[in-house]
Design the sequence.
């Protein structure tokens, strides 16, 4: 199934809207990837060195190729199959969100309960605040069973 994800960049570097209420990821702080599941969005916090690469690939000027499988993920030329993080309920929530909407929205957020400078790569059913973000080229993705 092909989907469109609208991508957004902050008008000013490091400005973000808050992620909002979510279910904490038990033990997430001890892992390289921490999932946040909210009512209308799913976010992921990753280690800073991974986040820089991911935000460059997902929210950079070039449009990436992205495919979500049940337990696999392909980002550009990299395949991730049966990686532990892809079996997490947060990944399942992200796939469910993508299956449930025609268009999703991707942008960076923050939350006060996480250390300063922590950014959350967020996929939401709703667009972010236009006062803080400008829209970039959309991201076509494939979501597979």
Sequence:
């Amino acid at each position: 199934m092909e989907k469109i994800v609208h991508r957004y960049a902050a008008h000013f570097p490091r400005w973000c809207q808050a992620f909002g209420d979510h279910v904490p990821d038990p033990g997430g702080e001890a892992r390289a990837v921490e999932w946040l599941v909210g009512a209308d969005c799913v976010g992921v916090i990753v280690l800073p060195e991974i986040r820089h690469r991911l935000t460059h690939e997902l929210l950079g000027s070039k449009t990436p190729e992205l495919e979500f499988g049940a337990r696999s993920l392909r980002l550009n030329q990299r395949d991730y199959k049966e990686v532990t993080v892809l079996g997490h309920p947060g990944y399942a929530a992200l796939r469910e969100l993508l299956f449930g909407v025609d268009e999703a929205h991707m942008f960076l957020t923050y939350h006060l309960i996480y250390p300063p400078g922590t950014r959350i790569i967020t996929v939401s059913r709703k667009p972010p605040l236009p006062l803080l973000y400008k829209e970039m080229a959309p991201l076509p993705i494939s979501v597979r069973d």
About this structure: The helical segments are 48-59, 89-100. Residues 55 and 121 are 8 Å apart (CA to CA).
